[in-house]
Amino acid sequence: MAVKVAKIFQSGMVLQREMPVRVWGYGKPDEKIKVSIQGECAETLVEADGRWSLELPPLAESSRETMVIVCETDQMELKDIAVGEVFVAAGQSNMEFWLKYEKHYQEILPSYENQNIRFYDMPKLAYDGQEKDFDYHKVGIWRKASKENLAYFSAVGFYFAKKLEKDLSVPIGIIGCNWGGTKSLAWMREDHAREIQKEQTEDFEIKLNGRNYGEFCRTCGNNPMNDTGNSTWNPFNEFILPQTPSMDEIMDFLRSDQKMGSVMEAAKPQDAPGMLYRHMVQRLAPYTVRAILWYQGESDDEIDGTQKNYKKALDTIKRDWRDAWENPALPFFIVQLPGFYSWFGCDILADAPRLAGIKREGRKLTLIFENAEGGLFVEGDKVEAFSVTSGEDEIAYTEMIAGETIILNLPSDRYDRLTVQFACDGWYRVNLYNQAGIPAIPFKRTC
User: Fold this and answer.
1) What is the pTM of this model?
2) DSSP letter string, 181-193
3) Is 116 helix (H, G, I), strand (E, B) or coil?
4) Which of 64, 132, 209, 399 sits 20 to 30 Å CA-CA off 340?
């Protein structure tokens, strides 16, 4: 049996810099595996079940490297490897949305070329055997940002990578792990999904129409909607993605194609509890990445009663993914979404603390904040990034948090005009929050 690596390890890939790099694959039990790149190497033995995994020391930024994987009877080379920053672009259709449908694509993007921006699309898989039911050779490929490949990129992922590559001048890799229209229950562990999203689980099981899950999966290969090997160009996506149709227009489209309408109403494997976590997330983890970009949530508004569960569901997704990556500090960058079908109807503190005014009384300045119900709080001993100046002179002060205000006591009351500013320097650390944990907005005010 020749040595093999997991599918994501390919020529043209991007590896994470400055962090230990996990590499894994398959081989003959007890056979020694050695992986080397950039002068660094690591060794391990294949386990009894045929799996192997090892960790390379941190790598330096590079635009072209070769990885050599050696066992006792075989050797393979992966070439044209970049080392830089790697992110997972995860969620549903907003993250999946391809550059082909982006407003400026035809005008600007087809001429764009950048070998330092690369994209890998995780195959959309939701049940055992799906890869055998359909042809998946067009997905699960590392692509460079070129006129031949840009149409396949996540638009959000591409623009994130484009900005970061310009600012950091290092290769950027984006791994798309997303699926349009999916609910939170699919992206966490199955047992957690059944506990947290009971309404979503019940809705899926009703759609099974008396079949058990195994029976359902054996019929999935007969449904063309489960062919996600080239899903970019299916008729429904061609209709819905270049525009923002109303619900009436969507229903008219589905009624015009009765076959598609019927399969849209039926049980879908990607709606099964925990199945995208099992078949996509766990295949990707623990590929070394800097962070997760998360853009999902509208589909959790489809079933009444599930909206209230979303915070707990998202916290669970973060915990389950961090467990999969064996990294409890794995960062998540999250897009906050408004209501989709309906507003959640809860009176919650959702805006950042903002300076509403300053009251000056002798040596005392009282800074009054809005969006600070329940009181402000500081992470640390004092508010960072504050300054009080009179002309060119910086004024010393002592501070005190008092509910929705901050009181600054100055050494004298004999100043003419004062300027109070917060977080307006080129670099600053904001540690002033409201009770929702939202950081305060920078300001500059005279008094």
Assistant:
1) 0.80
2) T--GGGGS-HHHH
3) strand
4) 209
